[in-house]
Design goal:
Length: about 300
């Protein structure tokens, strides 16, 4: 069940990250973020005559009605483009939305980095930290994009609120599909980030579950320690405490040890530890039985 859920998280985070990268890339490269039209209201039949209509993106403005019909102009960030716009408020809107341009670009860079790191982490799942790093980059990408969207909307709303109200003129605007792609990519990137972080937590928990106990490892030796060699040289270990042991009991124990060798375990460290322990116990029992025989001979 755990491997199944980890596989599902891996697939979902990859799909969400790829879709988020694709949508924000399309949104940044297209010019349908904002659609505007303005004109006059004819008093005779109460109809509207469109004087200008355009759609704009982060890099280009295209006119679809008016004197500039069919013309696309690049958004100049340092010089003013030579275009004829009906009202000053419309020109101000096109100027103010440029302040939000850096944030989608940073978001695109972050999500590309996150997608690459995430795929490397899926190829090498033993490197658990890569899932966490990719999740952080996905979340930062989504936050950067939402800051840009908020600045974009607030710039347009400020200019629309300051626009003078004239009954003989009309002005309409709405957001295009490029803006919708950017907003959708924010949700996808945040979802990919959350799933990547959760995948990191699951992988880390699985590593901790199957990691051997620290007691199975021998201590690392330090060259500057006075006791650095005591674990490599058993002859330097302190002698065990001996007591009088009945010869019959000692012989029974030694026979039992010799007849039932330690069962091999799956962990080689545990097996070596048990073998050394059995050997030390057998040597101790032999020494104890020798002392008992010597004492009995002296008493005689």
């Amino acid at each position: 069940m755990s491997s199944c859920s980890s596989r599902a998280l891996t697939i979902l985070s990859t799909v969400f990250g790829a879709c988020g990268l694709l949508l924000v890339g399309v949104a940044v490269s297209t010019d349908y973020w904002l659609l505007m039209e303005e004109g006059i209201v004819l008093q005779q039949n109460q109809s509207m005559e469109v004087k200008m209509a355009l759609h704009s993106g982060l890099w280009r403005v295209c006119f679809v009605a008016g004197t500039e019909n069919g013309r696309c102009v690049a958004s100049e960030y340092f010089t003013e483009p030579e275009i004829e716009i009906t009202t000053e408020n419309t020109a101000n809107i096109l100027k103010m939305v440029r302040t939000a341009t850096p944030f989608p670009m940073v978001s695109l860079l972050f999500v590309f980095t996150a997608f690459v790191i995430s795929n490397i982490g899926h190829i090498r799942p033993q490197r658990t930290i890569l899932a966490f790093v990719s999740g952080i980059f996905f979340i930062l990408s989504g936050l950067s994009l939402v800051v840009g969207l908020v600045l974009y909307i607030s710039s347009i709303n400020d200019e629309v609120m300051n626009r003078p109200r004239e009954p003989e003129q009309f002005f309409n605007y709405h957001y295009g599909w490029s803006f919708a792609f950017a907003a959708s990519s924010f949700l996808l990137k945040e979802g990919a980030g959350v799933m990547s972080v959760y995948l990191f937590m699951k992988r880390y928990a699985e590593e901790e579950m199957y990691r051997p106990h620290p007691a199975l490892y021998r201590p690392r030796l330090s060259e500057c320690s006075d006791y650095s060699g005591q674990f490599l040289h058993p002859e330097t270990w302190p002698p065990p405490k001996r007591g009088r042991i009945d010869s019959r009991a000692s012989s029974d124990i030694s026979i039992q040890i010799n007849q039932t060798p330690p069962q091999p375990t799956k962990n080689p460290l545990v097996h070596i530890h048990l073998v050394l322990k059995a050997e030390r116990w057998a040597e101790r029992e032999k020494e104890g039985s020798g002392e008992v025989e010597e004492l009995s001979r002296i008493e005689r």
